[in-house]
Amino acid sequence: MQRAAASLASSRSAAAWACSSTSRHAIASCSATARRDAVVPLRIRGQQKVPLHSMSLSLLSRRRPARTAKAAAAAAELAPASDEVAAGGGIAGTVQLGAMIVAWYLLNIYFNIYNKQVLQMLPLPLPYTITAFQLAFGSLVIFFMWATKLHPVPKLSAAQLAKIAPLAAGHMLGTVFTNMSLGKVAVSFTHTVKASEPFFTVLLSAFFLGEVPSPLVLGSLVPIVGGVALASLTEVSFNWVGFWSAMASNLLNQTRNVLSKRLLGGEEQEEFMDDINLFSVITVLSFLLSLPLMIFAEGVSFSPAFLQSTGLNLQELCVRAALAGLCFHGYQKLSYMILARVSPVTHSVANCVKRVVVIVSSVLFFRTPISPVNALGTGAALAGVYLYSRLKKTKPKSS
């Protein structure tokens, strides 16, 4: 025993001597690596930047200890230069990520189909009620997940709830306006208009954060704006309410992201929260915020007595609404999980491809008439979004 204790003491002395003789850069590297390995179980290690259109998730889901200016500079030097896929795990990890992306696309496709069918079946538009139902369904799934201990229940402080509440409000209102748009125009047109999100990101970032975009980034906005305008002029199902609802959804979502970056960018986090719990809390808060808005705007119109008086097939309507709610919750949760495993640029590109898949599938399913000029406008807008995503990777760092 004494010999083992002596050996341990000798090892500790040798480690202490080695650390004292190690360069400052190596010490910073060791401490930075230890911190990342200790507190980031689901977040991709070394990932520093998250774009505004990815909802600034890392600002809420990562707990960072206080660091001096010198330590922060050392950590910045150690940040990886690559912004490619950050998920590891070799072939198995790649297959898992690919399966998640395919499921993300499929759930998004089915959500748009079922949601459009529900909105078409209703005798009058009820976007607030539909939104509350979708968020309620997701909240039930979340409470089941917590009750069965499939995922640990988060420990929230009042300060954290105050920071998450604006994100939940933006999430809820963005969904309301998306449902308004889907109830008025074709699914393909709604997603074409929503492809103009980068325009609002650049505009609001310049206004609130003082971030000046590069000429190349500004140039990528030209095909986006031009493509949306061209598609709008030639859209058969064009409706001003549907158009402005989709635009309002873009504006709300991007304002939420920009303001969350401004509010949370430099603050320390009290407790760690992973991406699944962050999305879950946002969903539950969004549902609670949607209830008074639904009652004030539409009353309790979505009731069995009201639906029976319209002659609707209640069973068919409820089944499709439940499937839409399940797909809505599933594809959004997968989006956040994928964002935790890949770089922001990769996620943005995958989201752009997803929008193409949703547009094409909705056109085929609903047999939406599209003229060659309309298809050209949609293609130009989506190409601009892809170009914007790639240019964000090469954007120079602000000093």
TrEMBL record:
Pfam families: TPT. Residues 96-389 form the Sugar phosphate transporter domain. GO terms for biological process: phosphoenolpyruvate transport; triose phosphate transmembrane transport. It is found in: Plastid, Chloroplast membrane. It comes from the Eukaryota. Keywords: Chloroplast, Membrane, Plastid, Transit peptide, Transmembrane, Transmembrane helix, Transport. InterPro entries: EmrE-like, Sugar_P_trans_dom, Tpt_PEP_transl, TPT_transporter. It is a multi-pass membrane protein. GO terms for molecular function: phosphoenolpyruvate:phosphate antiporter activity; triose-phosphate:phosphate antiporter activity. The keyword Transmembrane applies. GO terms for cellular component: chloroplast membrane; Golgi apparatus. The chain crosses the membrane at residues 85-107, 128-147, 167-187, 199-225, 237-255, 276-297, 370-389. This is Sugar phosphate transporter domain-containing protein. It comes from Triticum aestivum (Wheat).
